[in-house]
Amino acid sequence: MSIRQERSATCADSVDSAEMTRRRMLTAMVGTLLGLVLSALASTTILTSLPVMMNELGAGQTAYTWVITANLLTTTVSLAIWGKLCDLFSHTRLMFAAIGLFIAASLCAGLSPTAEALIGFRAVQGIGAGGLISVGSVLLADLVSPRERGKYAGVVGGVIGVGTMGGPVLGGLITDALGWRWNFYLGIPFAVASVILLHRTLDLPSPRGSARIDWAGAVLVTASAGLVMTWVSVAGDMFPWWSWQSVAMVTTSLGCAIATIVVERKVAEPLIPLGLFTDPTISRVVITSVSLGVTMLSVPAFMSQYFQIARGMSPSASGSMILAMSASTFIASTVVGQVISRTGRWKPWVILGTAFLLSATVGLATLTSTTPLALVGGYLAGVGVAVGTLMSNMQILAQNSAPPDKLGAATALPAFFRQLAGTLAIGVLGAVIATRVSKTSGAAGSTGDTVPDVSKLSGPVRDAVQTLYADIIGDLFLWCVPLAAVAFLATVLLPNRPLRTNTAVQQRAESLLSE
Hints:
Organism: Rhodococcus artemisiae
Pfam family, one: MFS_1
Oligomer: single chain
Subcellular location: Cell membrane
Low-confidence stretches: 1-20, 443-449
CATH architecture of the largest domain: Up-down Bundle
Largest sheet: none
Protein name: MFS transporter
Keywords: Membrane, Transmembrane, Transmembrane helix, Transport
């Protein structure tokens, strides 16, 4: 038998072994979704118990901030690294590695004796969460073709939405009943169930890529993204925004970014294949993801302040208003995903999604302290429709356009830039709020260092504070409008490529057959 015939036979066997029954495929998908639940719960369940944690550990506001920031930072910078590893190694083993790392870090975080130890273990937990997001998304591509993947977009979006929105509520209940440490143990049963389901159902061939890892690129990407994320987290608190420390951190971050481009153009297996950006679909998907990340993370972060300060609502009432966004996200993701899978026509829907994004951000930019709540709810629902329509489909389009040996990197790119842009936006826009409030603290009767409790303010002062915060938060969303306009243009210019009807495993096998 010739080498070509042997390779063909091997590829055919790989395709046959990848052809699961529908029941096995769904079981494997449940295992993968459980991993995605872990990543969502990791960031949200502890939010309501942070004051209790810091009090028990004897820590202050700086530690409070870094318990959140450490996890967010390592999750973001590890996305690209995990994505590239998917192009080199077994996806199943990488998923097990991410879950194992997440479990170990969660267990250690729950046992932390000091705030410093807790921050360190939260950073390690973030690396595991980045793996769950990147590798989990690639596993879904292994299991389902781009044409069929839309059917499950609603499920994926719903799972992540439930984990994100329900995490704080669940975390508060666990803290009251069992103590804050049990928030870190919560994900362990999910992790064990995910490993069992994936071990029983997945038998996927490993990628054909070489095992050469771009360590220089990994260090440079981590340094560049990490430095700029750290800067927006600590600037304005530990040192002024306009200071030599800020100049040094931003300059070093830009230098690392430039060095990354130089290195990635020369190495054999780049962490971020720059050639992907020459693909018109992938480059426009990244542009759209940046705008989406800024809006989808900024809206929940700052609209809670709008409702509770500018409108004097309780935390529970504020949360119920935010639910309009999560509900519309789930509905839009489910309906649009089903329609795209049945018809194969995706472009009108992503254009509609960015149109909703643009119109909703324009509406939010007009907020005042007297804007009808029904209208505000409509703006939030519009953001939810945009998120539900775009988030999963942007990733599918990137995967649909990527060559089989670059699938992992192409999957991680939209998530990496979406997360990075959103995180930077929250830091910068939060600083804008603090600066404007401090400048007008005399008129508003508050300071830039504390968040006012409007229920304790007298009538004239309360009205001044509410008007001030409403105007500031409305102005913040003006920053989102140009980004949304660029995203709309990017989706209009997307090449109208048909969605593939074969899975990633089949694509890799066919690529081998054609050689």
